[in-house]
Amino acid sequence: MFFGSIIYFAGGLLLAVYAQSTPCACSNSTILINSLETLEAAQACTTAAGDIVIEYGEDLPPEIEFPVLETVEGSVLSLNFDENIPAWRFSAPRLNRVKDFYLSHWVNLTTIDMPLFDHADRIRLNDLPQLTTAHFLSTVSRIDFNYEIWNTSLTNITNNRLLYATFVEIFDNPKLETVELLALRNASYNIALRRNRPGLDVRLRDLKEVWHLELQQIASLTVPVLENVIGYFIVNASSLNTLSAPNLQTIGTWYDPHIVVTDNRGLIVTNNQVLDTLSFPQLKNVTLDLVIRNDTSLRNVHFPELHSVAGNVALEGQFTEITFPDLNRVGGEFSIGVGQSSAFCRPFQDLKENGSIRGDFSCPEFSEPTPRSQLDLDNMQEYIDEYLEWVITGQTNAGAIVTVPAFKGVLMVVACLGALFHAM
């Protein structure tokens, strides 16, 4: 009996100690912070069992700090649309893991200090126009879903630990100079860089596969080991001189060829005024489109291994050389617009005559592609089945090579996968 009393007393003492070290607020499903009092209660937590939600409060200090917080089982959320939180600093020096970390509309926030941060389902930094320091973006090694950075004043985003992500979306950062995700191997949905500071340098040193890769206003791109772009690869309105993907082999795919096709668009390189070198030495297949237009400094288009294009091919510019030595499948019509010169027509006419072009061929007059939306869902499977049968049974050819010394006109080449594809 005496021994049992000791156990009972010791157990009660442990419960008392735990209660003192773990404030009641820490075990709540939601810790709502909207005043100095609620902030001070949360500051005692080492682990938060649920979400931490920060809202506007008149007496909240200019620095929001969680000095001992290590783990948040839920998320850290602050999405203020009615009244902006005036704090300039967010600090959690021991925090290493949350589900979602989402800060939005902190108009004065300049600094996020989380030096040990390592793991999140999602990181979303949206509408933080004064944010200049967020070193935790360099320490994180695991993000299961979203990696979003929108409308900040960050100048560099660098990480050499993150291996995988689903969404990487970096938009509207007017001071951003560099994006370096040096360990990233796979982005299972997209990497999209839009409307950032013109002249952005992008380094994706270990990237091997991505679903969609969309880049705007970049000055350089490094993708030395990229092999497969499942959806589309778009480079638009940029100032890079060279676009090179030395190991890229395929762009685009079907979701299910018996049901529907992706809206992936393929390879699109447009409106890059100083681009003068294009290098895809191992690219073999493009599904759906291949479009190179309004790149005014580009003279040579050379795809030495390209075997098939299932969708649109559109080439427009003052080219002196176009070479497709292995091309033997174009999945729709093939239209070339060359201004006053018909010198480019003959090799592509040969492709049509030997059955390598599935649809109509016209040259030198340009024919506008038929929008994909004009093919309804009832006819889509039939169309795809016919296309796949044509791929298996169609004829082959020796490819097309065209060289026009000192050519000054404008060339446009378009091959369309029938009505399935959007006009550019």
TrEMBL record:
Q: Where are the transmembrane segments?
A: 398-421
Native source species: Fonsecaea nubica
Q: Which UniProt keywords apply?
A: Glycoprotein, Membrane, Signal, Transmembrane, Transmembrane helix
Q: What is its main location?
A: other
* InterPro entries registered for this protein in UniProt: CWI-Assembly_Regulator (IPR051648)
Q: Does the keyword Phosphoprotein apply?
A: no
- Where does the signal peptide begin and end? 1-19
Q: What is this protein called?
A: Uncharacterized protein
Q: Where in the cell is it found?
A: Cell envelope
On the tree of life, the source organism's domain of life is: Eukaryota
GO BP field: fungal-type cell wall organization
Extract one GO cellular component term from the record: cell surface
